[in-house]
Structures are given as structure tokens and as C-alpha cells.
Design brief:
The complex is a heterodimer of chains A (111) and B (111).
Chain A: E1 4-7, E2 10-14, E3 19-25, E4 32-38, E5 44-51, E6 56-59, E7 62-67, E8 72-77, E9 86-93, E10 99-101, E11 105-110
Parallel strand pairs in A: 2-11
Antiparallel strand pairs in A: 1-3, 3-8, 4-5, 4-9, 6-7, 7-8, 9-10, 9-11
Chain B: E1 4-7, E2 10-13, E3 19-25, E4 31-38, E5 42-51, E6 54-57, E7 64-70, E8 73-78, E9 87-94, E10 101-102, E11 106-110
Parallel strand pairs in B: 2-11
Antiparallel strand pairs in B: 1-3, 3-8, 4-5, 4-9, 5-6, 7-8, 9-10, 9-11
The chains are: A mainly beta (111), B mainly beta (111).
Chain lengths: 111, 111
């Protein structure tokens, strides 16, 4: 059974720092991996999707990498801002388009 | 967000009553999903649909049923609500291999 783990569970940093959030999964037979952001009381916003054949994806200050063989993905946030404060979730897609989620990293960026 | 509307947004009901949550999309996506989100468990898939009248069970389907009679609507029913079904419920939509997009959620409390 696929298990997805995110470390750390919570992170508090000053504005301007570069951050790395980690996601690991136990079964490397995935179709893709998706990173989401969730603000309190809100739904999930898709940030990046990496196909299993890809190594990384970039969007603005965000960069996500995927090492399928080792079962790991990282989300890199450059020059963090208070507006980046949220919970970040990773999810792996298995057959028939089902997603298996990690429990998230709660990020706080203070001025 | 991405043409997804969940209703109601909040509901309080009593144990033993039936409850139906609705997810409506305007994107004409083939896949629709129901998740629940609970502290310490993250998001878990309840049921999903891969077309009109085509549905399948997810990880935590016991006590829930779904129906999809047309492309745009996916209903989640709790036949006889229990306190363990108190949760935040999210609907998501996608096309095959594409990112899943989420609604804003329904906060359900069962007393």
C-alpha cells in the first residue's frame, strides 16, 4: 500500500529564506506527483505537477523535483514571503487517476 | 476555483439522518472525486467517478454512496450519518493525467 510522508510537519522561517519541503513515497510505480497549497479554511490549489518521466517542474519561485527511483520529491521555494504561509501537500497518482496524499507541511513565513 | 461548486458549504445534522452533498462542475471533466480531510489523516479518497454512471470505491468508502447521473454533478450521500463522519469534504475534478482541481469544501458536523 502506497504511503506518502512529508517532513517537516511544520516550519517557521523569516521572510527571504530559501526553503525545501520534502515528500517521500513507498512505491515508485507512480504516474505523476502533484504539489498543492492549502490556505486555512480553503480548498487545495494545484501548484505543480511532475510526470513520472520528468525530473523537475518550475513555476515562478517554485521548483519541484522528482526522484522516482528513490521515492522522493522536493519543493523548493525561493525568497520566501509572508504570503507563502500555508500548508503544502504532496500527492502521488496511482492507476485510474487516484491520488494518495501526504499529511502536509505547515509553513509560516514571518516578516 | 476551476469551475467547481460544492453545496452546502456548512451543515450541522444529527446522528442517523441522511445527508447529501453536491459537487457541480462547469469544466466538462471526465473524472470527479470525493475526499474527506481529517487532522492526522490528511485527505483520503472516498469515491470517484470516471464517467456518467461509472463510479468506484476509494480508501474510506464504508458508510458512503455516490451517484453521477450527468457529467456536471457528483453527489455524495451518507445514508445514516455517524459522528465519525464529521469532517471536511472536498470534491475534485480532472481530465486523465491532468492536475486535479478542488472545490472549497463542505464542513459537516454530525452531533
Amino acid at each position: 500500500k502506497q504511503e506518502v510522508t512529508q517532513i517537516p510537519a511544520a516550519l517557521s522561517v523569516p521572510e527571504g529564506e530559501n526553503l525545501v519541503l520534502n515528500c517521500s513515497f513507498t512505491d515508485s510505480a507512480i504516474y505523476n506527483l502533484q504539489w498543492f497549497r492549502q490556505d486555512p479554511g480553503k480548498g487545495l490549489t494545484s501548484l505543480l505537477l511532475i510526470q513520472s518521466s520528468q525530473r523537475e517542474q518550475t513555476s515562478g519561485r517554485l521548483n519541484a523535483s522528482l526522484d522516482k527511483s528513490s521515492g522522493r520529491s522536493t519543493l523548493y521555494i525561493a525568497a520566501s514571503q509572508p504570503g507563502d504561509s500555508a500548508t503544502y501537500l504532496c500527492a502521488v497518482r496511482e492507476g485510474t487517476d487516484k491520488l494518495i496524499f501526504g499529511t502536509g507541511t505547515r509553513l509560516q513565513v514571518f516578516p | 476555483d476551476a469551475g467547481i461548486t460544492q453545496s452546502p458549504r456548512h451543515k450541522v445534522t444529527e446522528t442517523g439522518t441522511p445527508v447529501t452533498l453536491r459537487c457541480h462542475q462547469t469544466e466538462n471533466h471526465r473524472y470527479m472525486y470525493w475526499y474527506r480531510q481529517d487532522p492526522g489523516h490528511g485527505l483520503r479518497l472516498i469515491h470517484y467517478s470516471y464517467g456518467v454512471k461509472d463510479t468506484d470505491k476509494g480508501e474510506v468508502s464504508d458508510g458512503y454512496s455516490v451517484s453521477r447521473s450527468k457529467t456536471e454533478d457528483f453527489l455524495l450521500t451518507l445514508e445514516s450519518a455517524t459522528s465519525s463522519q464529521t469532517s471536511v469534504y472536498f470534491c475534485a475534478i480532472s481530465s486523465l493525467g491532468q492536475p486535479q482541481h478542488f472545490g472549497d469544501g463542505t464542513r459537516l458536523s454530525i452531533l
